[in-house]
Amino acid sequence: MTKSSLSQHDSLFKKFLGDITVARDFLEIHLPPHLRERCDFS
Questions:
Q1: What are phi and psi of 39, to 5 degrees?
Q2: Are 35 and 26 in contact (CB under 8 A)?
Q3: Any idea what DSSP says for residue 16?
Q4: So what's the pLDDT on residue 36?
Q5: 24 is in which domain, residue-wise?
Q6: Domain membership flag for residue 42
Q7: Is 27 within 8 Å of 39 (Cβ atoms)?
Q8: Whose CB has fewer CB within 10 Å in the chain, the N or C terminal residue?
Q9: Predicted pLDDT at 8
């Protein structure tokens, strides 16, 4: 990946996870159970 494409990906990811509802859903879906147990998603 070029630096430009990494920067675009980073920007998109930050925007995506900047929405707390989206971030919560994303993490609840993708984190393994042992890590989800340590998170407060409230």
A1: -100, 145
A2: no
A3: H
A4: 95
A5: 3-36
A6: no
A7: yes
A8: C
A9: 82
- Total number of residues shown for the chain: 42
Q: Which CA distances in Å does 2 have to 9, 14, 18? A: 11, 18, 24
> How many structural domains is the chain composed of?
1
Read off the tokens for 39. Answer: 């998170």
CA torsion sign, 9 to 12 to 17 to 21? negative
For 7, what's the count of Cα atoms within 13 Å in the CB-facing half-sphere? Answer: 3
Secondary structure (3-state) at 7: helix
How do residues 1-42 score in pLDDT, each as one tens digit?
666 767 888 888 899 889 999 999 999 999 999 999 999 988
**What is the reported pTM?**
0.65
